[in-house]
Structure formats: C-alpha cells, structure tokens
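Are you able to produce any protein sequence you like plus the matching backbone structure tokens because I've never seen that pairing?
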Amino acid sequence: MEGIRKGDIVNFLMSLKLKLSKQDFELWSVISWLIWRDRNSIFHGGVARLAESLLEDAGYWLREFQRLVGSEKILASRTMINCDKKWKAPTMGQLKLNVDAAVKCSSGFIGIGVIVRDCNGMVLGASSLKFAGHLSPFLAECVAVREGIKFKINHGIFPGVIEADAQNIVLALQEKTFNALEGPVVRDISRLLERLGNASCRFTCRYCNAAAHSLAQFAFRNNVSQSWFDSIPD
C-alpha cells in the first residue's frame, strides 16, 4: 500500500475488488479489520495474538457474514420473530442444559457458562468455568458445549436437550462437519450426545440463553471455576 494517500483509499479498494475474487476480497477485508482491531487492542495494553488465531477468527467472521447475507438470514429473522424471549422448560422427565461462551482476547482464557434445569424450571446445577486458550468465538462456543456436557456427565447429570445461541454449532452437528479446524471438537460433541442417548442440540436466542451467558461472563470476575448445585448465583 506504499504511496497510497488518504484520498486514494476508495480507489485502492475498488481496484482490489476488481483484481480479487469475491471470496478473496471478503476474506482480505475481514483480515484487515481484525489486524486493525488487534492493533488498537495492543495500543491499549492488550496482548498480540498468533497469526493462526487471527486467521481462524477471520474464517469464523467471514462465515458469519456470508450466513447473514445469505438464505439463513431469513431463517435467523424468523427465529427472533418467533422467540418470546423467555426460556422454555423441557418436556416432562427431561433435563435441559443451556451453555454459552464468553471471549476476551487479552485474558488468555474463555468463560463457559452452564446451567441445567428440569421440566419445572428447577436448577439442578450451574457452573462458571475457565478454559485456558486463545480461541476464536466459534471454536470457543464449540469448546463450551463440549466442556459443559462433559462437566455435567462427570457430576451425574444427564441432560436430554442441549441449547446454545451459536447456530453454527447446531448446523455443524447436523451436517457432521468434522474436517474444519473445529472439526475434532464438533466430533467430540457428537459422541457425547450419543453417550447421552442421542440427546438433541438446539439453537436458542440470546434472550432465552441469558442465564448461561451471565455465568460465562462471571468467569472473568473469578480466579477459579465455580459450580453450584440446586441453586444459581445472584
């Protein structure tokens, strides 16, 4: 970009758009945005990420962009229109696990929120877990689902329904997408669902997943993972 002045940026972008394929131009745009975001983070005391992590993030955000401008935008809109913004209890005799992830690039770990409730809405277990690693939002959501299921199984809780507000995870499980970077984690989730007797993994909106979201954020205010049984923290 040597020799490009402020007034030439638009011409440069138009020229680049003509030279690159639509896919490559969109990927270049996302990578450029992430580099600028990381530059600002470092300027304000943040930690630089590895190139692999940045590229992984770029792939995630590009998929999200393409999903939203594609046919799934209609599906997502209908989901939000039909959502009554209230958590729904599972059917009689079932347990429902809601899980969410929170990501802060400078922290070196992700927060995982997990809560299990029965058909009456009673809380049987809740957890705010810390998981070390610099993960992209999508991979963090995948890890959150996997670790949330494993944690509850290890404590003798076996949900029949798992809900998350990351639609890509549900699609990856339905399509058995095991070849991408997050593939091994998605495969782990699939095996855990089989272990639970073919439990279902469903998409839910953020409003209905608020408790798990709060627990995921709670992890950044604590030095260790915490769990509660038969209750939930204020």
Q: What stands out?
A: The chain is about 50% helix and 15% strand.
